[in-house]
Design a protein that fits this description.
18 helices, 965 residues, alpha+beta
């Protein structure tokens, strides 16, 4: 007799029935254990261990060698959905291939990041796709479809979208609250997640560290009210690392970890990423929450069910049926070609006065100069390079090494102290100050766990100086390298060594800062930024002193901790070397940009749009010596390049382009490929044009290309070509619930090239502030010279709508809408107008519906806060001269009283038709103790309401009583 398999092992049964069977077989402890990131095996049932979380933002990360594609913002700059889908497929295949050899590689991929690039100073801008929700959604849908695969039941990998919600600041990221009004929430921040989830290729989301409207994202009611209503598919919510503990430790939102964990689980968090691989802390909290009655077993089962559905979808329980189980595609010829194609398509030509392209067959030399000219930079979420191409490599290969010269532009310096010159000893003169394999050790694949090398001798002082390459990355942040290219770094033992290939690590150990010494002409202390300690010369080598440590040695000042005073001798300024190379060349390519681990990264926002002064000096020196100067910007962020844009004949930008970055740039410079990348962010002229970093009200402060009223340096969607394109025959008509828009694009130039046709909409007459332009479609197409193509867009009529705060609904107002077709948000070639029917918004029916405080039309000096710890919004003042404005409130035949629901202490001033009614708010029992207070108020007809808040009042709602009631 054939033994029947356990039902959860039976592939003929639907997943739901199999999960039901497995759930009832698991003990309570086994189910609780599954709620941690590192779920242990259940040996008695033959179930293996499982981990949520495998980084794969632009290639397999943190797991050793892999194909490295351009940064996410670079993929966004391609504006090419099909390309990004193929990149996602390649990354998913490499995850599978690596998993087959190393079971530490997870199949639950924490990517992509769909946070909108609202503010260009956000430190993690490199991780997002665009400032626009529609473009971000399109690229995210493409990437997740590639990661997921196209099998109806089994998934190649299970993508998780990051980071829910309204997360654009690293400054105080785990304690700051994003004040997000309902219109911004529904029209902007939610949309980036919504469209990707509805597309069906997303397995879950990860909440962000921050709070939204006063409530941590990890207990957000929007997880159930929005996210899980967008699809019938099961979605897993994975916490960000350490965020569950933050609910108590840094945010102080709950008194105990048991309360916090229970609240997160009830809100919808399924998998807890906390305390690394030690699951006992979180599982202990869950057990105690159960014992205290804060949870019941159904809460646990709901989360476990979602996690099991994810695991079933990945083929874990059906290895013989999993179509992706035997995937071996890793570092293939196709993947290498795709990495190059993506890097080429990400390059944006910002300006060209005819200098580009450069003719590879023409005589003459090319100087490739700049701090990033011979660099192939990786970011926090990169894999380890198998192949590497710098701009210098690419130009030498394409134009001939004998025609290319190079000058990095770092300052060459020597450091002297009382004990002599700073020296870098030979690596084989180990002094026994430490042992260990150090950075890059096999097995330490999480970059946060990598330690600095201790197997090299530390720096010393002596009679012979060592030349050091000094780079100022801005804000006084310095790196120093030895002649062999090794960065000065500080290991756990505190000694300074020339040991690092690149700056890196969760806390960068390769950055320093000068500190002037009063009374000592030319004397400086050297501060190690990673530890905050001073660099000091001791008898056994150079080390970083602790705050209270006294080191016996030379050059220490009496005041403060141990610190050696150094004098700096400049052997050669970087701009002098660059000017010399530029003057001797026929053409100069200056490569500038950022190091992704310095001055703008996870945990650190940028402070300015300015290019660092060191790099400004380099391009100025090059251009002064040679007017044929091209500026190539390789960066994760926009810069305010106002002077360069005015002075130089050609500018390009690309994100850090991965393993093929140099080859791609050279092929663009040579004209082998016509550039067609487009900016996914607005490039502003200066810091003065930016809103506050923590100001999330894109409508009120007129942020992003949607509402920005100024003239940017380069607009959203901008990018030039070596060819020219004409647009003709724009038509638009309504077809049911769609707008059918068609336009013909023709290559009127002499070279084959890509064009990115962009479609925008604008409401010509609206009852509320609407975007000045809004992207509703894009298409990247390749055209031969003289060729044309008719392209069509099917735009949902709902795209014309907005969130109507007066009636708490999405609405499409009747009227005329302008359809714009062009090459950027500012380069509009054709327009037409379409008229649609719709439902007029109408005034606010304040006698029939309470006025929610957060449903204002405009505000000044306020922020939205949490009404309770589980749901609802309130508004409180942040400045004395604050105001909430509610337009077009219908009092009908009249009102006689107003009732205010508020907590705190102070007053609420309500002004209608110039008459102010003050409602006093006596002190309540805490911020969540809302009480109602009534006062007489008479008004009739349709009027605006102005509300001012005094004291610590938290206003929840305002209600009016009709005169006849």
């Amino acid at each position: 007799m054939t033994e029947q398999p356990q039902p959860f092992r039976d592939p003929q049964l639907p997943f739901a029935r199999r999960i039901d069977d497995l759930l009832q077989r698991l003990t309570l402890d086994e189910r609780i254990a599954m709620l941690h990131q590192f779920a242990p095996a259940v040996d008695r049932l033959g179930i293996g261990a499982f981990r949520t979380g495998q980084e794969g933002l632009h290639g397999v990360a943190w797991m050793g060698p892999a194909t490295v594609f351009p940064q996410a913002v670079g993929l966004g700059a391609t504006w090419n959905d099909d390309l990004v889908r193929r990149v996602g497929e390649a990354v998913g295949n490499e995850v599978r291939a690596k998993r087959a050899k190393d079971d530490r590689v997870g199949l639950n991929v924490w990517a992509p990041t769909v946070n909108l690039l609202r503010h260009p100073l956000w430190g993690r801008g490199e991780e997002g796709y665009a400032e626009d929700a529609a473009l971000t959604s399109a690229i995210a849908v493409a990437y997740t479809r590639g990661l997921r695969g196209d099998h109806p039941h089994y998934w190649r990998t299970a993508p998780v979208l990051k980071h829910w919600l309204a997360h654009n600041n690293e400054t105080d990221r785990d304690t700051s609250s994003s004040s997000v009004r309902p219109r911004v929430l529904h029209e902007y921040d939610l949309r980036a997640f919504r469209d990707a989830v509805r597309a069906g290729a997303v397995a879950g989301i990860m909440p962000a560290y921050n709070l939204v409207n006063g409530r941590p994202n990890h207990v957000s009611p929007l997880l159930s009210q929005q996210l899980r209503r967008w699809t019938e598919q099961s979605l897993v919510v994975c916490s960000d690392a350490g965020a569950p503990s933050n609910l108590v430790d840094s945010e102080h939102y709950f008194d105990t970890h048991e309360e916090a964990t229970a609240a997160a689980l009830k809100a919808g968090v399924d998998s807890f990423t906390d305390h690394g691989q030690d699951s006992t802390v979180m599982t202990g909290r869950i057990r105690r929450a159960l014992e205290q009655g804060l949870l019941d077993e159904t809460d646990i089962d709901t989360a476990v069910r979602r996690l099991l559905e994810l695991r079933f979808s990945l083929g874990e329980f059906d290895p013989g049926l999993d179509p992706y189980a035997d995937t071996t595609a890793f570092d293939t010829t196709e993947h290498r070609a795709l990495a190059q194609e993506a890097a080429e398509q990400a390059v944006v030509l910002l300006k060209n006065d005819g200098l580009l392209p450069l003719d590879p067959g023409a005589p003459g030399t090319i100087a490739v100069v700049g701090l990033l000219a011979d660099a192939c930079k990786l970011d926090w979420y990169s894999g380890t390079l198998i192949h590497r191409s710098t701009p210098l490599d690419g130009v030498r290969s394409r134009f001939g090494a004998d025609r290319v010269t190079f000058a990095e532009g770092a300052d060459l310096v020597r450091l002297k102290c009382a004990a002599g010159w700073l020296q870098i000893p030979d690596a084989d003169t180990d002094t026994g100050t430490g042992t260990g394999t150090g950075q890059g050790a096999e097995g330490a694949l999480d970059p946060a766990l990598l330690a600095g090398r201790t197997d090299l001798p530390p720096l010393r002082c002596g009679e012979t100086p060592s030349d050091l390459a000094l780079v100022d990355w801005g804000n006084g942040v310095l790196t120093l390298r030895d002649p062999d290219g090794r960065y000065l770094s500080v290991a756990e033992d505190g000694y300074v060594r020339a040991s690092a290939d690149e700056p890196g690590g969760w806390i960068v150990q390769e950055t320093f800062r000068w500190e002037k010494v009063e009374g000592h002409a030319g004397g400086h202390r050297l501060v190690h930024i990673g530890t905050g300690g001073y660099v000091s010369v001791a008898a056994d080598g150079v080390k970083v002193a602790g705050v209270d440590e006294k080191i016996s040695g030379h050059g220490r000042t009496d005041a403060g901790p141990a610190a050696t005073v150094f004098e700096i001798e400049v052997v050669e300024r970087g701009e002098d070397a660059v000017a010399r190379a530029a003057a001797a060349a026929d053409t100069v390519i200056v490569v500038v940009g950022n190091d992704p681990h310095i001055n703008g990264r996870e945990t650190e926002d940028r402070t300015t749009l300015d290019l660092p002064a060191h790099q400004e000096r380099l391009w100025h020196a090059a251009h002064a010596a040679n007017p044929r100067t091209v500026l190539a910007v390789t960066s994760a962020y926009p810069y305010a390049l106002t002077d360069a844009a005015a002075a130089l004949p050609a500018l390009l930008w690309t994100a850090h382009g991965g393993q093929a970055a140099g080859t791609a740039l050279a092929r663009i410079l040579s004209g082998d490929v016509s550039p067609a990348g487009r900016l996914p962010q607005t490039w502003y002229t200066s810091d003065a044009e930016l809103p506050g970093l923590l100001d999330y009200d894109i409508i009120g402060s007129r942020q992003t290309y949607l509402y920005y009223e100024g003239t940017p340096l380069y607009p959203f969607g901008h990018g030039l070509s070596y060819s020219a394109f004409t647009y003709s025959g724009l038509t638009a008509e309504r077809d049911g619930d769609r707008l059918r828009v068609s336009v013909t694009v023709t290559n009127s130039g002499v070279v084959a090239a890509d064009e990115v046709a962009q479609l925008y909409l604008r409401a010509l007459a609206s009852s509320v502030v609407r975007p000045l332009r809004q992207l509703v479609g894009h298409r990247r197409l390749h055209l031969a010279p003289g060729a044309g193509q008719r392209i069509e867009f099917a735009v949902p009529v709902t795209e014309l709508g907005h969130w109507d705060v007066a009636h708490s609904r999405w609405t499409v107002e009747p009227g005329a809408y302008e359809v714009r077709a062009g090459a950027s948000a500012a380069d509009i070639r054709l327009t037409t107008v379409v008229t649609v029917d719709g439902e007029p918004s109408g005034p606010r029916p304040v006698l029939h519906h309470e006025l929610e405080a957060a449903d204002y039309d405009e505000q000044l000096g306020t922020e939205i806060v949490d009404r309770t710890k589980t749901d609802g919004d309130a508004v409180t003042a942040t400045a004395p001269g604050n105001e909430l404005l509610f337009r077009r409130c219908d009092f009908a035949a009249g009102t006689r009283t107003v009732e205010v629901s508020a907590a705190g202490e102070g007053s609420v001033e309500i002004t209608v038709d110039g008459r102010t009614t003050t409602v006093g708010i006596p002190a309540t029992d805490g911020p969540y103790d809302y009480r109602s207070h009534e006062r007489p108020l008479t008004a009739s007809g349709v009027r605006d309401i102005q509300v001012a808040l005094r004291g610590t009042v938290r206003l929840a709602r305002i209600a009016f009583t009709g005169a006849t009631e």
